[in-house]
Design a protein that fits this description.
Order of helices and strands: HHHHEEEEEH
Distance between the termini: 180 Å
Low-confidence stretches: none
Strand content: 5-15%
Shape: rod-shaped
Structural class: alpha+beta
Largest sheet: 5 strands, antiparallel
Amino acid sequence: MNKQLLIILAISGVAIRAQAQELDQTKEALSKWVETRKLVSEEKQKWELEREILGDRIDLVRNERDTLNSKIHETQSLITDADGKREDLVKEKDALKNASATLVNRIYTLEREVLALLPTLPDPVQDRIKPLTQRIPKEQKTDLSLSERYQNVIGIINDLNKGAGEITVISEVKKLSDGSTAEVQTMYIGYATGYSCNNNGDVAFVGAPASNGWKWEQNNAIAQTVADSISILKNEKIAAFMPLPVSID
């Protein structure tokens, strides 16, 4: 009986120790599992935070990329516009250069025509426009600007147009057929013809323009008619019809 009891107690002790050992192992395993779960939870939270931060960084980089792409596009557009404007300016410059060359050739031609016209003008007209005609360059190369040259020619032409319909009377000295000279009053009808007579009314001339200057012919027969015409022009006589010879080439 005692032996059986001892055996039972021994077995019970072994079982209790086994259960205690198993319980300790279970507690240890459970503790490790809890610790593991805690670590997993912390890592998960850490990962969520890092993922959020990483997402914000990605959004920031994406926004910077979009902004940069937009600026690149704007810059490319500006460059394209600048290139287009530059091409237009180059074309405009070439066009102006060609136009300027044409204008230079044209003004040189006009200047030559004005100089060729001078001898056909009456002396008082030549004297009046002399300040302008002296500014006409003798050569195509000149220090005068293109605008100055055009203004000069336009000034001459305007003056000539104004005087073309005027009748003017001036005092001159003319050489007579006998070689002597006489002071005369000369009446210029525009730039087409002229009539001169002396103060005595017995000597007269008829003049007309030529390529190398005015040509004058003595015609004493019209002396009184010329004198009367000049007097009428000066309001010294009543207006009347005055027949005077005209030479038309």
